[in-house]
Design a protein that fits this description.
single chain, about 280 residues, mainly alpha, 2 domains, two-stranded parallel sheet, two-stranded antiparallel ribbon, 12 helices, about 50% helix, globular
Length: about 280
């Protein structure tokens, strides 16, 4: 089972788990696909390094980091881990081990069931779960409600916090609110009514954000392209990997001072023309 990289003490085990995870999620994933993404000339490089028949040299390190889609912090840990595993010097290994221990995080990512309708049914539950832990609002529900964009009612803020506390999404310690699980995701496939409704509301908020916020505070991009079914699967994989990297960036950000929403959309704008192109199935 694939785990966060800091839980590994052998980079080859990490590579094996990475490949198994990618293959399970994306059947078309292969060693050749990884090497092409990483910019490696030979598709055998991945298997030879993973099986210990070849060293992962410093020249290939950046390529592997690119192929694995690692964030900056994860890339740093991976580099130290590789050096630790391949070093023959006991003193050096001890120093590298200490660096690895210092980088281990205690952040867990909770997977919210798509059946957890109530959490997603009120869009401000998700926002308040973040906001209540960011600002010093001292149980002033009026202040909390007015800090949400768009503003909600004081009664809605109170009701939401009570729900989040009772269900364990947040907890109160020493007068401050903290998240029980700092990173929450609905998973790559969502289908419940609650989540669909939340996504619809956030898409509407994205439209309004174009007029309400300057470009220095929001980034909205759009791309219209012609793709095949195969291209769709590849783009969808990239989107899922992007979200995973964003979650890790958020985990590492200890100075958060504002709540943002990130929408990633991919949908058809025309009827499929069956039988056209070599990639059609």
């Amino acid at each position: 089972m694939m785990q966060r990289i800091e839980f590994y003490d052998d980079f080859r085990t990490y590579l094996r788990d990475f490949y198994a995870d990618q293959k399970k999620r994306f059947p078309h994933f292969s060693y050749r696909f990884f090497c092409r993404k990483a910019g490696l000339k030979s598709p055998s490089h991945f298997t030879e390094i993973m099986d210990g028949r070849r060293k992962l040299t410093s020249k290939m390190m950046d390529s592997f980091i690119k192929g694995l889609g690692l964030t900056e912090n994860d890339a740093r840990y991976f580099t130290i881990l590789v050096n630790f595993n391949q070093s023959k010097n006991s003193t050096e290994k001890q120093q590298l081990l200490m660096q690895m221990r210092g980088m281990k995080r205690k952040v867990k990512q909770a997977l919210v069931s798509t059946d957890y309708y109530e959490y997603y049914s009120k869009w401000y539950n998700i926002i308040l779960r973040e906001l209540a832990c960011l600002i010093d609002w001292a149980d002033d529900y009026d202040l909390l409600a007015k800090s949400v964009v768009p503003q909600i009612k004081k009664s809605e803020a109170r009701e939401s916090i009570e729900f989040l506390l009772s269900t364990g999404f947040i907890k109160k310690e020493n007068g401050r609110y903290i998240q029980s699980e700092p990173a929450i995701t609905s998973g790559s496939e969502v289908c419940s009514l609650g989540i669909r409704n939340f996504n619809r509301i956030m898409a509407e908020r994205a439209q309004k954000a174009i007029e309400e916020f300057p470009t220095s505070e929001r980034d909205i991009q759009s791309l219209t392209v012609g793709i095949s079914k195969h291209g769709y699967r590849l783009i969808k994989q990239e989107m899922q990997e992007f979200i995973s990297r964003v979650v890790r960036i958020v985990d590492d950000d200890k100075d958060a001072d504002q709540v943002y929403n990130i929408n990633v959309h991919l949908f058809p704008m025309s009827i499929r023309q069956e039988g056209r192109g070599p990639c059609n199935e």
